[in-house]
Design goal:
Layout lengths: L1 E7 L7 H9 L4 E4 L8 E5 L2 E5 L12 E4 L4 E2 L1 H14 L5 E4 L4 E2 L2 H14 L11 H10 L5 H4 L2 H21 L7 H15 L7 H10 L2 E5 L24 H5 L10 E7 L2 E3 L12 H9 L12 E3 L1 E2 H11 L3 E5 L10 E9 L2 E2 L14 E7 L17 H14 L3 E5 L7 E3 L8
The protein binds inosinic acid.
The site of inosinic acid has 20 residues, from helix 4.
Length: 429
C-alpha cells in the first residue's frame, strides 16, 4: 500500500496546500476528506497563484483523480466558481470526482451561521461564515441533503421542500424572512446540472487503488486543534480534520493508512477565538504576521501569531499518529531574534501532566518556554539541510526530539522548489 494522509498539526493554515501540491506529482488520487470552503489552500506555481477552498490542491496534475470525499460539506456555487477559475488558468487539470455522500451547503446554512454568531455576542466562535457548522448540524440531525440527492431531480425537489419548511421556521425565530422554495430550487437545479457529470460512487475505486499499491493521498483541511472532538471545543470547526477523519470521510479503514505527515509552521497561528497559550500580542507577534503575511486566505482576517507550542505539537503527533513532521515557513522566523518554544504548561505553579480537554480548564494555564537562538538573512535559497544556518538546523532537531517525531520535509518558501525532502521513506510508507 502507498497511502498518505496530510494533516494540519496545529490550528490550520499550516501551508498544507503547498505540500499537497508538491507531493501530488507522484499521486494518482488526491482525496479531500473533511470540511468545505472554510478551508483556504494556496498553491504557487511559477507566476500563478491558486487559492483552493474546495478542490483538492492536487488537481493541478493531469494524472491525478481529485476527489471531494463524502465527509465534506460542499457549497455548489463556490465549487463551480473555483473550477471555472482553475480551468481558465490551467485547462489541463486532473479528473474531478465528487462523492454523492458529501453534504450540500445551502444559503440557509450560511444565514444561520451568521445569525447564530451574532446571537453569541461576545462568545463568538469566529467562524468563517461559510455555513459549515449549520450544514454539519443538519447532517448529524439527519436533515442534511447530500450531493447524490441534489443531482436526482425528483428526490431533490422532495427533500428540499421538506427541509426548507423546517429551516424557514428556524429563520423566522431569528426574525429573518423565509427563503423562497422556487428560487432556491431553480438555483440549485442549475448547479446540479453542472455538477452531475462529476458525481460518482468513488469509495470502491479508492479501496481498489489502495489494494493495488497505487499512490493515494488524503488531504486534510483545517487543523488538529480545530477538530470537533480533539480541538479546543467549542472554538472548533464542525468536522474531523485529524488523520482518523480520512477514514470517516472516504471509506478506507485505519489499517489502509501507511503514512501520516503532520504539517506545522515553525511558529503558531490561529484564526478566530479560543485558547492560544503561546500567542504574542506584542511587536514580535506583529513582526511574524507581517513577515509571514498571516492574513486568512478565506476571510482575509489577520491571524493571531505566537511561538511554536511544542506541548501542543507533541499531543497532535500522538492524536494523529504522525509518521513525520512537515515543518513549514522556517524562512518567516529569519530576523526575529531569539526564539521561544513552549515545552510545558503550568497552572497554579504546577506543571500539567495532561492535555486539558474542556475550554474552562485552559483558564490560568501558562506556557513554560525554552529559548533557542534564532537566525537571520534570506534562507530561501537553501536546498539541503546543511545549507541552513546552524541555529535553524538546531531548531529543527529540537522540535523532532521534543515531539518524538522526525522531520520528513522542510519548507522555506512558498514555491515548489523551496522544499527539502529529508526523509523520502516517510512519505508513502
Ligand atoms: P467554521 O469552520 O467556519 O465553522 O469556523 C470555526 C473555527 O475554525 C473558526 O475559528 C475559524 O476561524 C476556524 N477555521 C475554519 N476553517 C479554517 C481554516 O481553514 N484555517 C484556519 N482556521 C479555520
Amino acid at each position: 500500500m502507498a497511502t498518505l494522509v496530510i494533516v494540519g498539526a496545529q490550528w490550520g493554515d499550516e501551508a498544507k496546500g503547498k505540500i499537497v501540491d508538491v507531493l501530488s506529482a507522484d499521486a494518482l488520487y488526491v482525496v479531500r476528506y473533511s470540511g468545505g470552503n472554510n478551508a483556504g489552500h494556496t498553491v504557487i506555481v511559477g507566476e500563478d497563484t491558486f487559492k483552493f477552498h474546495l478542490l483538492p490542491a492536487g488537481i493541478l496534475y493531469p494524472q491525478v483523480t481529485a476527489v471531494l470525499g463524502g465527509g465534506m460539506a460542499i457549497c455548489p456555487k463556490s465549487l463551480l466558481e473555483e473550477l471555472d477559475r482553475t480551468i481558465a488558468k490551467r485547462p489541463e487539470i486532473g479528473n474531478l470526482v465528487v462523492s454523492p455522500a458529501a453534504h450540500v451547503v445551502f444559503p440557509y446554512h450560511r444565514l444561520l451561521d451568521q445569525l447564530e454568531e451574532e446571537a453569541r455576542g461576545l462568545n463568538k466562535i469566529g467562524t468563517t461564515s461559510r455555513g459549515i457548522g449549520p450544514c454539519y448540524t443538519d447532517k448529524v440531525q439527519r436533515n442534511g441533503i447530500r450531493i447524490g440527492e441534489m443531482v436526482e431531480p425528483i428526490v431533490f425537489e422532495r427533500r428540499l421542500r421538506e427541509v426548507l419548511a423546517v429551516k424557514n421556521q428556524l429563520l423566522s425565530m431569528f426574525g429573518h424572512p423565509a427563503l423562497d422554495f422556487d428560487e432556491l430550487h431553480t438555483e440549485f437545479q442549475a448547479y446540479a446540472d453542472r455538477i452531475r457529470p462529476y458525481v460518482r460512487n468513488i469509495e470502491t475505486d479508492i479501496q481498489n487503488a489502495v489494494r493495488k499499491g497505487e499512490r493515494v493521498m488524503f488531504e486534510g483541511a483545517q487543523g488538529t486543534f480545530l477538530d470537533l472532538d480533539h480541538g479546543t471545543y467549542p472554538y472548533v470547526t464542525s468536522s474531523h480534520p485529524v488523520s482518523a477523519g480520512a477514514c470517516l470521510g472516504t471509506g478506507i479503514g485505519p489499517r489502509d493508512i501507511n503514512s501520516v505527515l503532520g504539517v506545522c509552521k515553525a511558529y503558531t497561528t490561529r484564526v478566530g477565538s479560543g485558547p492560544f497559550l503561546s500567542e504574542l500580542t506584542n511587536e514580535i507577534g506583529n513582526q511574524i504576521r507581517e513577515q509571514g503575511q498571516e492574513f486568512g486566505t478565506t476571510t482575509g482576517r489577520p491571524r493571531r501569531c505566537g511561538w511554536l507550542d511544542l506541548v501542543a505539537l507533541r499531543h497532535s503527533s500522538r492524536v494523529n499518529s504522525l509518521s513525520g513532521l512537515v515543518l513549514t515557513r522556517i524562512d518567516v522566523l529569519s530576523g526575529v531574534g531569539d526564539l521561544q518554544v513552549a515545552t510545558a504548561y503550568k497552572k497554579d505553579g504546577n506543571v500539567l501532566d495532561h492535555w486539558p480537554s474542556c475550554v474552562h480548564e485552559w483558564e490560568g494555564v501558562e506556557p513554560v518556554y525554552e529559548t533557542l537562538p534564532g537566525w537571520s538573512g534570506d534562507i530561501r535559497g537553501a536546498r539541503k539541510f546543511e545549507d541552513l544556518p546552524q541555529t535553524a538546523q538546531n531548531y529543527v532537531r529540537f522540535v523532532e526530539k521534543f515531539t518524538e517525531t522526525p522531520a520528513a520535509i522542510l519548507s522555506i518558501g512558498p514555491d515548489r522548489a523551496e522544499t527539502m525532502i529529508l526523509r523520502p521513506d516517510l512519505i508513502w510508507g
